[in-house]
Amino acid sequence: MAESNSTSEAVSYGYEGDVALVCVDNPPVNATGVAVRAGLQDAFRKINEEGKAKAIALYCAGRTFIAGADIREFGQPPKAPGLTEVLSEMEQSAIPTVSIIHGTALGGGYETALATHARVGMKGAKFGLPEVLLGILPGAGGTQRLPRLSGIAYALDIAVSGRHVPVEEGVEKGAIDRVVEAGDPREIAIAMGQEVVAGTLPTRRTDQLQAQADDAAVQQTLEMVQKKNPHLINLAECVKAIAASTKPIDEGLAAEREHFLVCMNSPQRSGLIHAFFGERAVSNIPEAKGETRSLDKIGVIGGGTMGSGITTSCLMAGIPVRLIEVQQEGLDRGVATITKNLDGALSRGKMTSDKRDAALAMLEPSLNMEDLSDVDLVIEAVFEKMEIKKDIFGKLNTICKPGAILASNTSYLDIDKIAATTDRPQDVLGLHFFSPAHVMRLLEIVQGEKTAPDALATGFALAKKLKKVGVLAQVCDGFIGNRILGHYGKVISYLVLDGASPAEVDTALENFGMAMGPHKVGDLAGLDIGYMTRQRRKEEGLPADERYGGDIADRICEREGYGRKTGKGYYLYETGAPVPNPAVDEIIDEVRAEKGITPKEFTEQEIVDRYMTAFISEATRVVEDGTAKRPIDVDMVFLFGYGFPRFRGGPLHYADTIGAAELVRRIEEYAKEDPNYWQVPPLLRKMADDGTTFADMNS
Ligand code: CAA
């Protein structure tokens, strides 16, 4: 304990002259779990009762000030005392109080600071109300106290964006009272407490201030959030709670509670918090934690879209890259793409011009593969042909230094076959990036049969350096993401064959939360990619009992074009906004007539149900056969690599909201039409029988 008297296992207090010091020490981030709440209440009560102090300074031990409520308690039965009541009591302290902020004061942490009578931030510290990112709203007085200090418009900006704000900005807006040089929080707490005693650091109770109504800001923000993401009901609830800050504090806090509970009981809260923990859980595995090899210099083979994106990502992380191409033209194109990517990052404010120049200076383009002799890791990103990859890995085997990691960015090929062309399969693994590789955060880390533990752990270390979410996958056709995509992609074509229009499917899935329906995505990415894959599959011979769903897409490619890049696809793009292409309707009618299909109507819900049931079926198989370690790994693949709506938590988190028994019932129903495609995964049947969930498998 940092101070001599402890009021709980997480809070202690003591005295330095006239100043009472209250210390919160609750690793890792001093979240306001029950021990902190009870401890704070007790400490402030006791200091007031003891009556020895003229100021109370609150500070935190460890890496940060209080970073928020303890999210792990959400969804559990509440434990008294609640943070709101503790903060109201603290605010009424007869002795003036001050908070010392280092690291981050977020959510319930900043709300704690708002309830003290002054806020001092150390240089470099940040504050914010990021609750909306977790599907809720500031529920411990933040919506009432910040508007009283900084006005309704600023409170709306902070609470609706959820951004982490530098304390320097907070001073300009009245949200922070003073910024001091960074130092030991306890020393600063003593100094600031003494200033409070001396009257050189003014204090006042936030609840005694009045917030001025700002109907224009409220209305404008409400319209903006409802337009931007109608699914996130918490954004509108947050705006309404802030609008209530013109009322007396007790009424405002009661309004905040009502709006908070609407969000707390919503499925989106559970989905977004699943996403928060999932992002961290994927690398919280033994495979990611062992010893790692160096990552001081990386080689990338291939200057196409993927190779350039991977190179950009490494350069942005400060890792020098040697980029290899076979011809000068390809190399020049690669360097031009990388330069364009970095310029884009500069114009979006992601990096400074100095950093952009430094990044480019770390790029060494070369036409000579021998130049890879001293790199620590090579990422091959060439055309998806096994023979080409085998040839490259055979060469790398002789060129690269012992212990160098040899990685392939293949999106579906067998890593073990690639590794077999070397006499160091322990150094080979898959590093599957997603396009655009310098933007998309997912990195599938594919473990080959013989991949060494330290090579695998280095894959995770790379993900961390690149600020990506590394997910462990085992070898199979398409790994986690593309294998599941390959399966549910078929149900999209079956829906259209059987009666839905491409636009109906797109609208249904967009209303479900996808940023873009699958046909619009196809038009954007280019329909030729799927066309080539289908032709290859046809040449290889489709399984006899598989229903072929690609006729419509094939004819669109052959007669209309490949989507946006040729001006026509499922949609026409003459006016910019996509308009359904009437020629596609004719193709659909033609194919249905040839196949003797009488089209039926699908409601939006039926479209979503079939799509998600197909999605979940294959995702279950991926967990069942061990391609993914846990359901949460599958969820993160889709959130970070495929734009699955974050507020739904991921396909298998969503599956738990439906329940295994209902999913089995649906599959059996659909199987009456196509028993080959619709098969109940044994794991799902077992879950239905046992009454278990995917969440059970995550713990
Ligand atoms: N509750 C419980 N655990 C938390 C937590 C929280 N609020 N915030 C972080 N953690 C945990 C993480 O899960 C992680 O645990 P593991 O090591 O077991 O994986 C650990 O703390 C460290 O977190 P990070 O890996 O994220 O560390 P970082 O240094 O990269 O980032 C941080 C630190 C900026 C505080 C970041 O963790 C963060 O943004 N946390 C969430 C902050 C937040 O959203 N606060 C609002 C909470 S809701 C609220 O306060 C409601 C209210 O109105 C009362």
Structure description:
The chain is built from 30 helices and 20 strands. It folds into 3 domains: about 5-255, 2-enoyl-CoA Hydratase, Chain A, domain 1; about 285-475, 3-Layer(aba) Sandwich (Rossmann fold); about 480-625 and about 630-695, N-(1-d-carboxylethyl)-l-norvaline Dehydrogenase, domain 2, CATH 1.10.1040. The chain starts with a strand and ends with a helix. Helix content is about 50%, strand content about 10%. It has about 700 residues and is an alpha/beta fold. The strands form 4 sheets. It has an 8-stranded mixed β-sheet, with helices on both faces. Strands 1-2-3-4-5-7-10 form a 7-stranded mixed β-sheet, with helices on both faces. A 3-stranded mixed β-sheet has the order 6-8-9. Acetoacetyl-coenzyme A binds next to strand 6 and helix 3. In the N-terminal section; belongs to the enoyl-CoA hydratase/isomerase family. Belongs to the enoyl-CoA hydratase/isomerase family. GO terms for molecular function: (3S)-3-hydroxyacyl-CoA dehydrogenase (NAD+) activity; enoyl-CoA hydratase activity; isomerase activity; NAD+ binding. It comes from Pseudooceanicola batsensis (strain ATCC BAA-863 / DSM 15984 / KCTC 12145 / HTCC2597). Keywords: Fatty acid metabolism, Isomerase, Lipid degradation, Lipid metabolism, Lyase, Multifunctional enzyme, NAD, Oxidoreductase, Peroxisome. Pfam families: 3HCDH, 3HCDH_N, ECH_1.
